[in-house]
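pasting input
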Amino acid sequence: MTETACLHRWQMTNFRSGYLVTEGCFHCRLRISTFFEEPVPVIDDYREGDHFWSYLGSAQASRFDFRCETCDQEIPFPDMMALMLCLKCNPACGVFQAGEADKEHKTWVYVALCANTSHSPRICVGAEGIRALNEYFNQDLHDSSKKIIVVPCEKRQSVDTCEGLVLADVGLTELY
Amino acid sequence: MNVFELVKKAGLKAFNEFADQEIRGVYISDMVSDIIGIGEGNLLVTLQTHKNLIAAANLVDVSAIVFTRGKTPAEDVIALAAKAGIGLLGFDGDTWTLAKKLCELGIH
């Protein structure tokens, strides 16, 4: 079956655990997150061009890719750092509004977080990945009235005021 | 086996009201980042009572959550689980003891 004609049934593959390390630049106040698979998270300060990066924190996280069981299409997620549940804290936020559009289901909006929350390199989790995430997390729900909606984090209005729950384990490596 | 039947047979405590569901498997983990890789319908056994756990459990559509070693979730955790329709259960013994009990009851 061709990839375009396939009603994909996604399988999670290449599931790996690691650290989501958040760094901040004290010069421009930008924040980025990077996923590391090393046993110990990276905590060095360093300079990169005009940026002076400092370690802000880390959490144990995991990443995965998808493969379709029917057509073998693979979708990697190189730009996705973690998933986050929206707690509907701000009606003006694009993530909040994504959940309000569907009135027929009990919707839960999850955000696919990319590495650079400023989106200055204009990179976020791509449309194909977002579509696959929506298909995967809805494909086996036991309750037909429930719906999972996954959106890219560029829809989020503010990183600083967001009250979302990030699906990562914070604090387990604070000794490092 | 369904969750209601398990509650009776294993003597579990229920922290909230929820609709009955079929248990399709069991997963034991105390890490939120680990749970997102499991399939739907699992009974999640854990010591972790943080709200993030409910966010992950809801995403992967667990059948219910059992907290072992007498752990008690906070009110905001119970509220989020109730909104998600996830049953929160408690077991006073340790995780290994619960795992053996689940096997004895035929839940694998």
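fyi Residues 75-84 of chain B form the longest helix (10 residues).
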